[in-house]
């Protein structure tokens, strides 16, 4: 697919945008692209979390490790697909990465706190993780959309 100079979509974004409706809606709104990126990142996150819990790691620490793996995956997707044309160059790129990392630390804090608190209260680790994912998703999306990638 050839892109014009004013088309800010990534190659993947262009491909998704050329899909038949309603699948093309995935590319229309940043929240749907962010949701897709989050699902992919969450797959990495939860897979590592479940493996570590199966090996009897503390659920709080396992959630931290899983979330950290998801952060790396999410940056790669967010900077090229979710917020196309918003990536910076030079020093501004470094500041953007720091902002992204800051929002990741926010999400990590939310995730670890909720998982640890709910497991301590008697919830199953996977239920606690699900609750943390929902809260973290919206908090981090809003700070990235209106802060990091504005």
From TrEMBL:
| Highest taxon of the lineage | Bacteria
UniProt xrefs under InterPro entries: GtrA_DPMS_TM
Which chain regions cross the lipid bilayer?
A: 34-57, 63-83, 95-117, 123-143
Membrane topology note: Multi-pass membrane protein
Listed A to Z, the keywords are: Membrane, Transmembrane, Transmembrane helix
The cellular location(s) given in this protein's UniProt record come to: Membrane
**This protein's name:** GtrA family protein
